[in-house]
Design a protein that fits this description.
Rossmann fold; Beta-galactosidase (chains A, B, C); homotrimer; glycosidase (chains A, B, C); 17 helices; 9-stranded parallel beta sheet; 30% helix; globular; metal ion binding (chains A, B, C); TIM Barrel; 11-stranded mixed beta sheet; 25 strands; 675 residues; alpha/beta; beta-galactosidase activity (chains A, B, C); 4 domains
């Protein structure tokens, strides 16, 4: 959608003109040019500056700054400023302040601090978006609209309680149905009146982050909270569209962010954008997976890298510098996975408050003679060289991993079987094994089209929502390969167990019956013993966490437990189903097992690795207009060699023609236009 | 008391008919029969179902289900449903909601959630018991009444504050006396008016679980809280007795549960019942000790095992399956220690909310073809075979361990000398040494009859209440052996120090004066050096935690410290007192020392081991009508051999006659009728 | 100031007559005499006893007890009793109760529990001081006035909020200036009305102890809280002075106590007094440093050791006994560093509430035949022998370490770069290196006179307040040596970054520019590689925590980083500046490096070690009337030898003349009158 407008991948980031004087603005515009910066996100936290009381607005400073940017050739990502309400609003309209999970009414402070069901918040936030859109609808500098900022958090106030009851009425119609889906006959929680329902928090059904006595209400409250914020977003979205039907509107997401169901949100975003903040020791595969999730939110549409730090963060425990080359490498990693912008938080560092030690393009020293600035400028120059080559190019995968927020919420609120079960970690284990093979992967929702994939993996698909089992059966029947794991098929969309034998609705597809589920102590392990060689899989492997005790009901048993009283029971099965097959991994295996298993399946199914390369050398392909661009990223500090089999082509940054054995620098990046 | 009614040990557990439809009920009754189940606890959490508003009650479904049970030959343990109030009650009468230790008014949610001093709770709970008793007083299926469920928790609301002041007036008469016993001259806490007294919590005298600035008020509040709940229990108890004077009434206790003084409660229970939930790694000796405490609550009267899980729990961090045979083994362990029922939570698994992953006789799969069901049915069949053999049989011990809730509360609220001091752990150390010798032990209160024992052990008897020292002196004078430890004899019943030299009122009996008490860092140790051999005790042993620096005032010094500036001071003393002797263990020794010490004492005093057996093979004897039944339990996974010295007899389950060397299977159980 | 009154160092401690009857009082007076005790601190927590309602006061018991003391030759340190308000006051005037950091209104309990801005507290506390001063102004026993006790804690109530706004108005004049210094343009926190400002706590800008989203308001609230308590102190101080202009008034401080800016407080104290409670494993250098800080508060004036425990504490996790000799050793350590009293908490142990397990001169046993009492009496006798020898003697140092509370607050509220950064630990590292050399050190404030020192060390001088850089430049210019470290010169007095290049205002003096700051993971290290030998420094050393990446701008580079991408960058620099030099240590080095560095500087600058002695043998000198007293303390349990070079003289306790090689007992103390 953006390709028509700009000749290249956008480059820039957040800038807060309200923190600086005009002299500084001018100096900064000069440096933007030095760095090749052509987009600035402004007005993210200016609500208090723009609106000084209920009826008084001050836009002149913003007019002026946007004009300055425009004159300097910098485009604008215009935020709506509603992510932190003004102090006066909190004082005069306390309904805007949240009540936290401990039932405490907050006072003014922080950000992301407005109750999503506050009438005051909704009124003034919508009004702000309306005024901004009206004022800037014709401004040629504005490329993208950025609603609020990093939506998140939760609220348990009385307005939320009332809104929750309405949400429930809309969803379930009757209180009888609410009682049924929450199984309130347990512990005598039957409701006879809607007003008896109170938000689940640490004063009612919860204790701590992941503990609930009633998962049903907790799950619905998580959905309600996500929906409430989505309503806030939509109020602003629609206010902008009213004035500018063709506006490109987004809000910046945060990868694997638990509180908001981004698949639901993305339907209402014109383009996905997100803020990527890996730690120094975050595995590259994890960041890659997050990019793939963001790309998956809108079925493969390229996204904006809205924020990353040029060097360090401030909010981690130990805020390491990004090593020389790493910012560039991670920027290209985003691009390789579908980003069409490279943007920073922040273009200039604040001098006070909690982000003053967050890295910036322009550091406190204020000039361009810094390592960080030089690296930024070098990347700006390279992106200029690449121009529009990769813009709008897509990523094509034959392998998909199912990811589902409802499953995440339900799984981790579960009381038992093990506190050590972490959904994203399980997903990452499977992702990482494919990453190590350089197999391209999509992260998809249960609503996505399954038929375009050869292999679908659904780690810990605890919750099977209506239609999902049927879709998976159809996918497999038609020749697809399906892989799932322990603790899958347990509950329906309301976290009610599917009785009659686990894995419930997946039982037919998988051809197994899970009789029991054993939770292992952290120090305990069992063994996966292969019955015979399966590809490179042979001998035995460690497993742990949970062990399903299962019986084959037709599935082929490929490996058995090596220990404990369930020694000899199946731990790896494959069920032929129609023209396809459905695999079940009954425990949490070590890495080498997953490498072997997914390696075997990929080879059997002809799912290609993009590159033969040593550990830490990643490959991804984007394609466009019949051309393919192979991106190669060396996450090692040392140079590495990789081998191009049949692929070859010009490396676009150096202009060299690469084929056969190639050397890549430490933290290096190659992008080949394949010929 | 129950022996007259049923021909065998009851077998069954909790069942929640309100969660299931009639078809399921019928199917479950069929499976109960398969499993030999003849008792079901019902109506535990049905308050909201029975009472839909202040004046409307619905008993028909319960009538019907109790009739069904009766028709199927299943007896009923009828709960009163008052352990979780209905949501409507919380909405309309907020006084029923607790205020927690942080001063936060709770909202509706969870269970065990009613303020024990709430007029609303007391009114409707009593009324419910009254109505149930009136309705079911003549029902032939009802065997036992089960008031509420697992009483516990605490409340700090204004109603509790007012009730606390009344409780204090009743106990102390005047405010002057309150000031005296709480030592309020410290830190100027003198009260001039009853209304100045507020409940001690994290807003006043406490911070965290075990920290108080005023132990006196904390101790009294713990007593008051226990008494308040006991009053709630008694309201229901008396309401039932009004209609059914002969009713057998209980409430399910929880072993070493700190908040309630079960010795005080048990006086008002017709039979003790309790819920036993060992973790996978709980030592068998700990579970045995808990059974012995429950048996001790009513001076040796057999008790009900009201709840245990057939396999896993849901609320532990890592919910392991009970290994094959373990459920049977632990059931027999309960019986061996005095249980006259074997009952489960739960007979059928819920499909929603927090206990859906708690094990059940009938699992989610819903049929009888599971390992768990088979083990339950096997045990049911065996209990049928045993019939009434063990029913009402008693356990006879020559060794008692003193246990005291006031001591527990006071000790662990103490500021200093060491946060590592844990009362139950200390008690367990002595218990475990006796357990390893298969010496039968009673856990008794300070009010129990001491004279029937040869040996009384009182680990960390920090608080010596009025009369206790005198009773112990009398016991010893008449030939008894008394053993106590470091940090004993420090305070009176109000946690006021007995001045004039530790161990205060025990000083004469023990013949020692404790001058100082050293607290060791966790990594520090001292040594116990024997002066000469004492039985098997010789050489030296490690000790730690606390080291009393003591002087003998007549006691014989058997061992001295090996290190530090108090090297050479006594650490183990024995004082001849009348015809008996009083031992003092001045530090926290390693296991081998306690094995040696208690081994020596038992041998000297002729206190028998029930069995010569390898580690993990436990023995207990129950006796009845002149016959003794030797129960042998192998807690090891592997088979073991044990040796019967003079004992021999028929093993009742196999019918074999056993004598001499015997092999017992892993997790095996033998019960010999001694001849 | 006290020297005129008493012939010797005072010896005594806290005594609470209100906890004991007359018989006990008489017995205690007898024992005081045995122990050489000549001062008692009374009335610390008697508010409730003295004042039983708004208008009724009871002083008779206090009159009588003070007379008793006086008759026994014991002087009085008279406390004002306002550190814990009476219960009746809390009930009738809830404004006296604090609101905690979580926004919770406290209830009656504990101590140090009054809101410092409570009108009720201020009224009655001032009135109490007034009445006490009026009553006892002519009593010959009263030597020192002790206002309240251990001021501390914080409050966030509405009275504090209102007072905070007034404080801000006084400090900043306009709201515009507040907005500027707090940088409220960040996150749109602009205030348009004073009433919009709320105290920063866990409901607004904070989460947890050391996390704030707005450092500016947090820093000012810390100052405001310290000032509010200081105002309370001053109300009492002035009330006393009104009646007794010559009164010697103090309040007991607590060493490195973060909440109160003691440099500011000490200006209003006639003499500094403090409570010293080292743990068993506190390094002797840490205690020494705390003494030096207390001495530094009033520019070297001797101070009172107001409290220490004769043996154990009660509030530590593991309350070890002080080993024989340690109480004496630590008492003399205080004296060696400038104490003119040795006083205990407590003279007699309470029998109830949380301090009953805190050590006392008179233990629960109640007589004098204890180790603890004997050690107390021995020390009392020795102090008698020493008489007035050391009284009012001063300590003279050529080395000063800068310590600053504002810096402490700002540094540890910082979000980034590393949570592992601890100000006092960093100060202690430099102190300890000098301690190991037996170099005398002063701890001074930024307002102190710098010119009397040869060497000033300012570890992590993150905040450079107005005038400080200039003072340091002047100091160095005139030949002084200045040492500072990483993360210095970053912000101004409002925690606003000094832009233009770190270390900001120190850049010129240090001759370096810090381009970046790397935070290391806890397990990571870098290396300091010396370019050539610097004194004993050679080869390489470990460093960690933070690594500044710096460029010399004229400073000589003495060592470089050994690893990582900044290998070869300077890590130790020296800048010639006028006649002096300014050193920069760019990372957190291991101990041996600091020994080498400070050893080199001391040798170069002719800063003497007081003694050549093995590890753990400490030396300090106090001087008076032209005479010097060398105090030597052996912190080892074993005896040690030390060597007197040119020093020699009579050891005052033994009378021996010492020179050359000397042996000192384990935990021994020597005091030589140097000849």
């Amino acid at each position: 959608m953006i390709s028509g407008k700009l000749p290249k991948v956008f480059y820039g980031g957040d800038y807060n003109p309200e923190q600086w004087d005009d002299t500084t603005h001018q100096e900064d515009l000069r440096m933007f040019q030095l760095a090749g910066i052509d987009i600035a996100t402004v007005n993210v936290f200016s609500w208090a500056k723009i609106q000084s009381d209920e009826i008084t607005y001050h836009f002149e400073w913003l007019d002026q700054f946007i004009d300055s940017l425009h004159e300097s050739g910098v485009f604008v990502c215009l935020a709506t400023s509603t992510a932190a309400h003004p102090a006066w609003m909190a004082t005069r309209y306390p309904d805007i302040l949240r009540v936290d999970a401990d039932g405490r009414k907050r006072k003014f402070g922080g950000r992301h601090n407005s109750c999503p069901n506050s009438p005051t918040y909704r009124k003034y936030a919508e009004s702000m978006a309306d005024r901004l859109a009206e004022r800037y609808k014709n401004h040629p500098a504005i490329l993208v609209w950025h609603v609020s900022n990093e939506y998140g958090g939760d609220c348990y106030c009385d307005n939320c309680a009332a809104a929750f009851r309405v949400w429930l009425k809309q969803k379930y119609g009757t209180l009888e149905e609410v009682n049924r889906v929450w199984n309130t006959s347990f512990w005598g929680h039957t409701f006879y009146d809607w007003n008896e329902i109170v938000p689940p928090n640490n004063l009612s059904e919860h204790w701590g982050e992941n503990h609930s006595t009633f998962q049903g209400i907790s799950l619905d409250y998580a959905r309600f909270n996500s929906d409430s914020m989505l309503e806030c977003y939509l109020l602003e979205y629609n206010a902008i569209k009213k004035h500018i039907p063709e506006a490109v509107i987004t809000t910046n997401l945060m990868g694997f962010f638990k509180q908001l169901d981004y698949f639901k949100w993305a339907k209402h975003m014109d383009i996905v954008s997100w803020d990527s903040y890996p730690r120094a020791n975050t595995p590259p595969s994890y960041t890659a997976m997050a990019h793939d999730l963001m790309r998956g939110l809108k079925d493969g549409q390229p996204f904006m890298l809205m924020e990353q730090t040029p060097s360090q963060q401030n909010w981690q425990a130990y805020n390491s510098l990004k090593r020389p080359g790493v910012m560039r490498l991670w920027s290209y990693q985003a691009v390789a996975h579908g980003a069409d912008t490279v943007m920073f938080f922040q273009l200039r560092r604040s001098i006070g408050a909690c982000e003053k030690f967050h890295g910036a393009v322009i550091e406190h020293v204020g000039h361009e003679n810094t390592r960080v600035f030089r690296e930024v400028a070098q990347l700006g120059s390279e992106l200029g060289t690449l121009g529009n080559t990769l813009l709008d190019a897509t990523v094509s995968a034959k392998v998909a991993i199912l990811f589902d927020w409802d499953n995440w919420w339900a799984l981790e609120k579960s009381s038992g079987p093990s506190v050590a079960l972490n959904y994203v970690d399980q997903v990452h284990k499977y992702y990482a094994a494919l990453f190590r093979r350089n197999v391209q992967v999509d992260l998809i929702s249960v609503e996505s089209d399954f038929q375009k994939y050869d292999l679908i993996i659904a780690p810990v698909l605890y919750m099977v929502k209506p239609g999902t089992a049927e879709k998976l059966e159809q996918f497999t029947e038609h020749g697809g390969t399906f892989v799932t794991t322990f603790f899958s098929g347990i509950v329906n969309e309301n976290d009610l167990v599917t009785t009659g034998g686990y894995p419930g609705k997946l039982r037919k597809l998988l051809g197994v019956w899970i009789e029991e589920i054993d939770a292992l102590l952290p120090e305990s392990r069992n063994r996966i013993v292969l019955k015979e060689q399966v590809g490179a899989l042979q001998g035995e492997y460690e497993c742990g966490l949970l062990c399903d005790l299962l019986h084959s009901e037709g599935a082929e048993v490929l490996a058995e437990y090596g220990d404990d009283f369930y020694q000899g029971m199946p731990v790896l099965t494959r069920n032929r189903f129609g023209q396809g097959e459905a695999w079940y991994v009954a425990s949490d295996p070590e890495e080498a097992f997953l490498d072997g298993l997914l390696g075997y399946i990929c080879e059997e199914k002809g799912i290609p690795s993009l590159l033969r390369a040593p550990a830490g050398v990643e490959a991804s392909v984007r394609s466009k207009d019949g051309k393919s661009y192979l991106c190669i990223l060396n996450h090692n500090a040392q140079k590495q060699n990789y081998h191009l089999d049949e692929q070859k082509g010009h490396e676009l940054l150096s202009g060299e023609f690469l084929e056969g054995d190639v050397t890549i620098e430490g933290y290096g990046f190659h992008v080949l236009e394949l010929s």
